[in-house]
Design goal:
This protein is of the alpha+beta class and 194 residues long. Helix content is 44%, strand content 16%. It has 6 helices and 6 strands.
Length: 194
C-alpha cells in the first residue's frame, strides 16, 4: 500500500530538475535569443537609459514546497546603486508581479508602489510541485516579460519615472536618492537640449 502511494506522488508531482529544464527551454533561451542577458538568477534587457530585470527568487521553504517566485523590475541606468549586500532587486525602484503585466497595464491605473522594505516586494509564484507540466505558465510568463515588459521600458521614460516616485513614494531613503539622481539627469538633459 505504501509503495503505491509513493509511486502515485512521483507521477503527479513535478520535481525541481524537470521544472528547471522547462524554465530553461521555454523561458530563458527565448529571452536570450531576443537580446536579454543572463545573470545568476536574473535576466536583463537594457535599452538606454532604461533597464528591465526579471528576477527569479525563492524563500526558505521553496525546496520543500517545490515552488519559485518571480518579479519584474525596471530602473534607469544612471541611478546610483545602493551598494548593499542584499539582492540586486533593491536597486530597482519599479517592481511588479509578471501576472499584472497585461497589455497597456501602465495606462490603466498603474502607478509606482514603494516596495523598499527588506523581503517585501511583489511576486508571482509557480508551485511546480503540484503540476505535471509548467509549459502554459511559462508561456504566459515569457509573453508578459518579452512583450509587455519591453513596452514598459518605452513608457517609463525618466520624466515619467521621476513623476511616479515623487507622486507615490513614501520618502524612503532610497527614494530620496533616486529623486536626486532623476533631478540631476533631467537637469543635465534639459541643458544638453538647449
Amino acid at each position: 500500500m505504501r509503495r503505491m502511494f509513493v509511486l502515485r506522488l512521483s507521477r503527479t508531482k513535478m520535481k525541481a530538475d524537470k521544472f528547471n529544464d522547462q524554465f530553461e527551454k521555454l523561458f530563458v533561451r527565448p529571452l536570450l535569443s531576443a537580446g536579454f542577458t543572463q545573470g545568476r538568477n536574473c535576466l536583463f534587457f537594457v535599452k538606454e537609459p532604461t533597464a528591465l530585470m526579471f528576477f527569479r527568487h525563492r524563500n526558505k521553504w521553496s525546496a520543500l514546497c517545490q515552488d519559485t517566485y518571480f518579479t519584474v523590475c525596471v530602473r534607469h541606468t544612471f541611478l546610483r546603486d545602493l551598494n548593499t549586500l542584499m539582492q540586486p532587486i533593491y536597486d530597482y525602484p519599479f517592481k511588479i508581479e509578471p501576472s499584472r503585466m497585461v497589455p497597456d497595464f501602465f495606462h490603466c491605473g498603474w502607478h509606482y508602489e514603494s516596495f523598499n522594505e527588506i523581503g517585501r516586494w511583489p511576486k508571482d509564484e509557480i508551485a511546480y510541485g503540484g503540476m505535471r507540466d509548467a509549459r502554459a505558465a511559462l508561456d504566459r510568463l515569457r509573453s508578459a516579460v518579452m512583450d509587455i515588459g519591453r513596452s514598459w521600458l518605452e513608457f517609463l521614460q525618466p520624466t515619467e519615472a521621476y513623476r511616479q516616485i515623487r507622486s507615490y513614494g513614501k520618502s524612503d531613503y532610497c527614494e530620496k536618492l533616486w529623486l536626486e539622481d532623476y533631478e540631476k539627469y533631467l537637469g543635465h538633459e534639459r541643458t544638453a537640449a538647449a
